């Protein structure tokens, strides 16, 4: 009986995706209009604001994108992350989600998607045409049915507008059957705000990366979220060369069972002088783009999800801050700003260890940029 029910649900899901094939033309037209208008208003590039929040959900993915008061959520952590995610979205003032992308049917990406769907109005839900027999996936399908939502099929090359920003679908390849390698079904996107670009591809592995390269869509970006939590099965040399990011983000749980991220992936990043940020070390990471430059913050300050975050006492959290800063320094972080005092420090400065997490902003860039922006060098560490 269970098998029958699953089949029925999957059948329905595919039917929905199929029906929506017709929507493609409409979206494509809209996208052309977007491209036209952004080209015309190039001079306003520096006024475009976009924030990309890599929410700390332990060994899982959850990314919130905000531009001009419009929101998109990419993935929704594990099943037990619903409160973390909804609380975070509430804190950010999210009332409606313009887009929700469930990259692929693994629990660490769609775990709390059912709750997100039941909690928020969603304008466009994008998911790959690949079902799963798990309870987690069935829960998502039930939530979709309950809200009478339709599923939009990801078509590489298609563009969508989000506030001042826009994104292009990169993967999975249209019509390709990746079989039961669920990771390769991941919906990948290139997110653009002015001159800043982010490539975010769920858990896409090398087959999908090859298809993205073959698609000839320009993959060059400032920021790459390492696919599959920094596993060696993703981020091939050719893909990394094409994206050529300045920064990488790894969404990964502390002491996870899979030993992720793989050393090999980290080595590739350092060899290519790519600065990277990890959610297991920094908690939630926020990249703010003004259309020209990207600033980094880690807002949560709390320890990663799998420890008893609510019970951290101040000495533990101070110690943690110090460790993060030291590790960040080892990976090429340039400065740490205290946004409260307006002073900037070397990452290893003793003041950084005492700094309140909510005042701390990580900064990669030149000393001149910082003084130009009105920040003063710390007298203790003389950065
Ligand atoms: Zn996966
Ligand atoms: Zn995953």
Describe the 3D structure.
It is a single chain. The protein is α/β, with parallel strands linked by helices and about 375 residues long. About 35% of the residues lie in helices and about 20% in strands. It contains 13 helices and 19 strands. The strands form three sheets. An eight-stranded mixed sheet has the order 6-5-4-3-2-1-14-15. A seven-stranded mixed sheet has the order 7-8-9-10-11-12-13. A hairpin with a 2-residue loop joins strand 2 and strand 3. Helix 5 runs parallel beside helix 6. It is globular, with a radius of gyration of 21 Å. The N terminus is likely disordered. One zinc ion binds next to loops.
Strand content: 15-25%
Query: Radius of gyration in whole Å, from Cα?
Result: 21 Å
Shape: globular
Please give the order of strands in the largest beta sheet. Answer: 6-5-4-3-2-1-14-15
The distinct bound ligands, ions and cofactors come out as:
zinc ion
Please give the number of β-strands.
Answer: 19
Q: Low-confidence spans: pLDDT under 50, at least 5 residues?
A: 1-8, 15-46, 302-327
Helix share bin: 25-40%
What's the story with the biggest beta sheet? Answer: 8 strands, mixed
Mean pLDDT: 83
Number of helices: 13
Distance from first to last alpha carbon: 67 Å
Helix vs. strand class: alpha/beta
């Amino acid at each position: 009986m269970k098998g029958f029910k699953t089949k029925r649900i999957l059948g329905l899901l595919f039917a929905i995706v199929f029906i929506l094939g017709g929507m493609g033309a409409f979206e494509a037209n809209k996208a052309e209009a977007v491209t036209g208008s952004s080209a015309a208003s190039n001079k306003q590039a520096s006024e475009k604001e976009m924030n990309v929040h890599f929410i700390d959900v332990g060994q899982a993915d959850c990314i919130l994108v905000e531009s001009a008061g419009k929101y998109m959520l990419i993935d929704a952590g594990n099943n037990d992350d619903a409160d973390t995610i909804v609380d975070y979205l509430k804190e950010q003032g999210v009332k409606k989600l313009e887009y929700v992308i469930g990259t692929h049917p693994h629990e660490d990406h769609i775990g709390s998607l059912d709750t997100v769907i039941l909690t928020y109005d969603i304008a466009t839900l994008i998911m790959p045409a690949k079902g799963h027999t798990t309870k987690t996936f069935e829960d998502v399908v039930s939530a979709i049915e309950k809200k009478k939502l339709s599923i939009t099929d990801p078509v590489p090359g298609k563009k969508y507008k989000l506030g001042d920003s826009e994104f292009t679908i990169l993967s999975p390849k249209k019509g390709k059957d990746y079989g039961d390698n669920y990771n390769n079904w991941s919906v990948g996107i290139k997110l653009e705000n002015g001159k800043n670009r982010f490539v975010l591809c769920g858990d896409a592995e090398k087959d999908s990366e090859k298809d993205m390269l073959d698609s000839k869509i320009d993959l060059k970006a400032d920021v790459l979220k390492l696919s599959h939590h920094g596993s060696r099965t993703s981020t091939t040399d050719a893909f990394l060369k094409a994206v050529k990011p300045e920064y990488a983000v790894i969404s990964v749980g502390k002491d996870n069972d899979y030993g992720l991220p793989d050393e090999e992936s980290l080595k590739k990043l350092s060899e290519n002088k790519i600065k990277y940020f990890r959610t297991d070390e920094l908690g939630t990471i926020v990249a703010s783009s003004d259309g020209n430059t990207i600033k980094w913050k880690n807002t949560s300050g709390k320890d990663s999800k799998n420890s008893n975050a609510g019970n951290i006492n101040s000495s533990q959290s101070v110690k943690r801050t110090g460790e993060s800063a030291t590790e960040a320094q080892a990976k090429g972080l340039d400065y740490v700003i205290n946004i409260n005092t307006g002073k900037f420090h070397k990452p290893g400065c003793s003041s950084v260890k005492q700094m309140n997490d909510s005042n701390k902003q990580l900064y990669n860039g030149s000393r001149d940029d910082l003084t130009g922006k009105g920040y003063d060098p710390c007298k203790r560490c003389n950065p």
